[in-house]
Amino acid sequence: MIYGYCRVSTAHQHEENQHFVIEKFANKNDIKIDEWVEEKISSSKKLSDRKLSIILAKLKPGDILITTEISRLGRSLLEVMSILQMCLEKECQVWTLKENFRLGADIQSKVLAFAFGLSAELSKSLLQERVRESLARRRASGKRLGRPRGAKSKTLKLGKNKKKVKGLIGKGISKNQICKIMNVSKKTLTAFIQQETVGL
Predict the structure, then answer these.
(1) Which long-range contacts (CB under 8 A, 24 or more apart) does 183-188 make?
(2) Each residue of 93-134: pLDDT tens digit?
(3) Distance between CA atoms of 155 and 152, rounded to whole angstroms?
(4) Alpha-carbon gap, residue 8 to 144, rounded angstroms
(5) What residues form DSSP beta bridges with 94?
(6) Which pairing describes strands 93-96 and 64-67: parallel, antiparallel, or unpaired?
(7) Residue 38 in contact with residue 46, Cβ under 8 Å?
(8) Cα dist from 196 to 131, 156, 163, 166, 180, whole Å
(9) pTM over 0.90
C-alpha cells in the first residue's frame, strides 16, 4: 500500500496544496496512491488524536508513506523519531518530497531522520524564543499587550461621542435609553459618567 499524508495546522491553511504536490509527484513517477489521509490539526496534538495514527497502525512490511515534508509528521523531535522508528520496525518507508529522501531501514536513513527531526524541533524553539523576546521588548517599552478589554473599548467609544452623550443626558433621557442608543451596558455608561464627571 502507498499512503499519501497531508496535514495543515489551522483552518486558514489548505491541505489541497500538499495533495496536489504529492499527486503530481505520483503521476510523474507512475505511482498510484492507494489511500489518502488529510487532516487539519496541530502537530502539537497527541498522535493518538491525529488521523496519522490510523495509518501507522495499518502499515505493513513494504508499505510506503508519502508526505510533502518531514515536519508534516510532527514538530517534536521525540515524536518524529518515534514515528520514523515505528515505520522502520514495520519495514516500511517514509518518502518526503521537499527533502527528497526515502527513509528506510538503513543507518543513513536513521541519521537523516534524526537530523530532520532535530531541525524541526530547533526551528520551533527559536520561533518561541523570538516571540518571547518580542513580547518582553514591548512590555519594557510600556506598550499594552493583547486586545483592549471590552468595557474599556466601549468607554473609548463613548469618549469619542462625548458631546452626544452629554446632550442626551441634558435632555433628561434615562440611562437605559442612552445605553440602547449608544449600544453599551449600564455599567459602562456609569463608568464613563464618573470618569467625565458629567453627573445626572
Answers:
(1) 184/154, 184/157, 184/158, 185/151, 185/154, 187/151, 188/151, 188/154, 188/155, 188/158
(2) 999 998 888 887 566 667 766 776 676 677 777 777 788 888
(3) 5
(4) 32
(5) 65, 103
(6) parallel
(7) no
(8) 38, 12, 11, 10, 20
(9) no
